[in-house]
Amino acid sequence: MKYNRKYLGVALRLMQRGSLYRHVMGFIIQKGLTIREADEADKLKVDLWINPKGYISKAGHQNQNVTEFVAYCFGYLAGRVQLVRYSSENRPYSGYWLWGLAVKSQFKGGGIGEKLSQEVILKASTEGSKTLDLLVFNNNVPALQLYRKLGFVHYVIPGLEEQLQAQPTQNGHRHVVMRKLIGHFQ
Q1: Separation CA 145–CA 160 (nearest Å)
Q2: What is the pLDDT of residue 180?
Q3: Which domains does the chain have, with CATH numbers?
Q4: Mean pLDDT across the chain
C-alpha cells in the first residue's frame, strides 16, 4: 500500500505538469473555489495541515501584522498564504511580504496558488504598499514561473542577500528574493 501511494503521488505530479490537466482541473477547481481571509477556525485547520503531528501554534493567530488567506475548493481546505507587514525596524525584512504560499497536492495545477497570491497583492495594494517581496528557493520552478507570471522579478536587498548567501543550502539551492511593484508604481 505504501508503495502504491508513492507511485500514485508521482503519477499525479507528472499529470499536473501537463497543459491539458491544468486546463481541465483549472476549470473544475475555479467552479468550486472560495478564497477568504482566514478566521480562527481556518487558522487551526491550516496548522493541522501544515503540522499534522506537531505543535499547534497560535503565535501568528493574533498578530495584527499578519493577514492569512485560505482557499477552499468544494468545501475542502485547498491552500493558504500570508501577507506579513514588517516595520522599518525589522531590516532587512521591512515592508510587505508574501509568506507561506502552500497548496495541497491534490489541488495543484488548478490556479489556486495564483488566486491566493493575487489576493495578497490586492490587499497590499489597497493598504498603500508600493512593493511586495517574497522568498523562494531558486530551484522551485513552478513557484518561480507563477511569481514571474504575476510580475515579480529577482531583487537584491542589501543585508538580506548576505544572510541568504550565508545560509546552508539544500541540495545546492538557496532562497532568493523576488519583488513586485504594486499600486500606482506598476
Answers
A1: 23
A2: 97
A3: 2-185 (3.40.630.30)
A4: 84
